[in-house]
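Quick sanity check, NAD(P)H-dependent oxidoreductase:
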Amino acid sequence: MPHIAIISSSVRTGRNTHRVALFFEKYISNSKLATSEILDLKEYNFPIFEERLKHQDDPAKKTLEFADKIKKADGVIIATPEYNGGYPASLKNVVDLLYDEWHRKPIGLVTVSAGAFGGTQVMRAIQFTLWKMHAWVVPAMFPVPKVESNYDEHGNPTDKEGTEKRAHKFLQEMLWCIKAKQKMNDA
C-alpha cells in the first residue's frame, strides 16, 4: 500500500489550512487508498535554514527526520494557504531545504483560501518552484475556497459527499502517478 505524507504548511495562529490536511489524513485512512501522516510545519517549528540539508555540517535530528519522511513517502500532498498570491515562508523554507528528496516525487497540491477562488493563484508559484526541484506535480489539484465555512476545526467538511467525491478523483490521479513512478523504477 502506498504511503502519502501530507505537509500542513501554515504556521499562523488560527490557521485554516490544517483543517484540510486533517480531512485528507482521515479520508485516506478511512478509504484505505494508502497510509498517510501529517507533517505539520507548525509542530516542527523549523528555523530559517541557511543551507540546504545536504550541505549542513551538523543538521538537527528533526530536520533529518523530516527529510527521511519525504524521501520514504511514495507521494506528498502539500496543503498550502494562499498569502497575497504566494505561499508561506514556512513552506518555501522546507522546499528549499531539500533537493534530491523532491526528485520525481509525485506531489499533489491542495490550495486553501478564505476567498472564493480557493487559493488558485498560489498554484502557479508553488508549481514553478517544485518543477525547478524536479518534482512531479500531479495534474489534478484540489482548491478549497471559503475554508472556514467548508471545514470545521477537526477537518470535517460541510459538504461531506461532494468533498469526498472531489478528494477521490484527486487521489486517484495521485495514486496513478505513484504507481507509474513505481513501474518506471522497476523497469
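Posting the structure with no commentary besides this: The first strand starts at residue 3 and ends at 8.
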